[in-house]
Design brief:
The protein has 6 helices and 7 strands; from the N terminus they run H-E-H-H-E-E-H-E-E-H-E-E-H. The N terminus is likely disordered. A hairpin with a 2-residue loop joins strand 4 and strand 5.
Length: 214
Amino acid sequence: MQQSECSGQEATVDVQFTDLPNALIACKVAADLFSDSSLKASFEGLFRSFDPEVQFQYFRSFRRIRISFQDALAAAEARLRLHKTDFNGREMRLYFAQSVHIGSPRLEPPKPDKQFLISPPASPPVGWEQSRDATPVINYDLLCAISKLGPGDKYELHTATPTTPSVVVHVCEDERGGDSSGPDDSDQDDGKARPPRPKIIQTRRPDYSPGVKQ
């Protein structure tokens, strides 16, 4: 009975140490440790007592050191005895390094779900159909009313309401004036020649004076 209990305890201990990582991370290390060889040797000597084959990786920019042991038991023992102990006047903090399991050493391609949304699409999705363009709406009454208008006349499309303005179409006058070869019905009916359209005069740019300073 005692042997079975002992074997069960040993199995439990094995499972616990197997799940633990075999590396520690020393955080907030003093900057002198990365440049002083004597401090570095004394720091490494603290961990070599637990594992002679321990390896160190120094990350000066992050002020961290990774300590890799041969097994998780040595890492757990070193963390248990050296965590929050004093080294060179500073408290040393040790944490287990988190192991990341990727699952596959190769990068798998993305799943083919909704890949048609990537521009440009390789092919349309299943069941996609091209939509037909709607037939344009032609207002023949409006075209007929505009065709009967002469230069300068107007046609009210939408009567004004208390909340909306009116929409009025104005027919532009002939820019060629009297030089037009075609007959002008409005001139024949009125018997008077229309005055020439005024010319738009552009605003003159002011003179540049180099003596003025901003």
